[in-house]
Design a protein that fits this description.
Elements: H1 2-18, H2 26-32, E1 36-38, H3 45-54, E2 67-69, H4 71-74, H5 83-95, H6 99-115
Parallel strand pairs: 1-2
Length: 119
């Protein structure tokens, strides 16, 4: 019946979120060139406008393409976390970019995904 289906979908959804499998469709955006593998995580347009007005350095994070994972994300700044902190970490990444920093972020992301702690 419906309750079992709802529980199964809820369990599947929680598993996909915990393991970051829900992020896989964004790989298509990387292949299309709309996103990078590493960069500031995207926000919904509605929130971008709101955050740009409230957080002084927020707009600066748009100097580079958005990414599947980023410096803020590997430091636990995902979802319901401080927008000012995310902007700070995103701007640090942009200002200190190197191939080695990208590799470090990718390795940390893979480790988090394999542990089931996000990425």
């Amino acid at each position: 019946g419906p309750p079992a289906d709802a529980d199964r979908i809820g369990t599947l959804g929680r598993f996909m979120r915990k393991t970051s499998l829900d992020e896989l469709p964004q790989l298509w955006n990387v292949f299309r060139g709309d996103m990078s593998i590493v960069g500031p995580r995207p926000e919904r347009p509605h929130f971008v406008e709101q955050f740009e007005g409230a957080v002084p350095s927020y707009a600066d994070r748009h100097r580079v393409p958005v990414g599947l994972t980023g410096w803020a994300a590997v430091h636990g700044l995902r979802g319901d976390t401080s927008i000012a902190d995310r902007a700070l970490y995103d701007n640090f990444y942009i200002e200190n970019w190197s191939i080695w920093l990208d590799i470090k972020i990718i390795v940390r992301t893979v480790g988090s995904v394999l542990k089931g702690t996000g990425g």
